[in-house]
Specification:
Layout: E1 3-7, E2 18-21, H1 32-35, E3 39-40, H2 48-54, H3 61-73, H4 76-87, E4 91-95, H5 104-117
Parallel strand pairs: 1-4, 2-3, 2-4
InterPro entries: YeaO-like
Protein name: DUF488 domain-containing protein
Organism: Tunturiibacter psychrotolerans
């Protein structure tokens, strides 16, 4: 299973496979056609409280990862949906944040890779 992450604002391409949006909010200024999203798992995204607390502040990154991973442990239904979506073909987790290193898709990819290798 090949899983990538990518900004939803970047052009879709064939290598993306199944395009899964993992943001709670729809990306600003982007139509559904332009986004090319196959599946929107908004409930797998960080809660509004966590999202607002983090505010994409790199200084809060380590704590954000810990808190988000704890949320994921209590969100097994959405995690199961994600596993189903990525099980059969390549997939790309889409996010809208400008920061490519500090966003929920990075955490999800780490979690998925840990499960795959462990």
């Amino acid at each position: 299973m090949t899983i990538r992450i990518k900004r939803v604002y970047d052009e879709p391409c064939e290598e993306d496979g199944t395009r899964i949006l993992v943001d709670r909010l729809w990306p600003r200024g982007l139509t559904k056609e332009k986004a090319g999203v196959d599946l929107w798992l908004k409930e797998i995204a960080p809660t509004n409280d966590l999202r607002k607390w983090f505010a994409h502040d790199p200084a809060k990154w380590a704590e954000f990862k810990t808190r988000y991973q704890a949320e994921l442990k209590h969100n097994s239904e959405q995690v199961a949906l994600l596993h189903q979506a990525i099980a059969k073909a390549p997939a790309t987790l889409l996010y809208s944040a400008k920061d490519t290193d500090h966003n929920e898709a990075v955490v999800l990819l780490e979690v998925l890779n840990r499960k795959k290798s462990g």
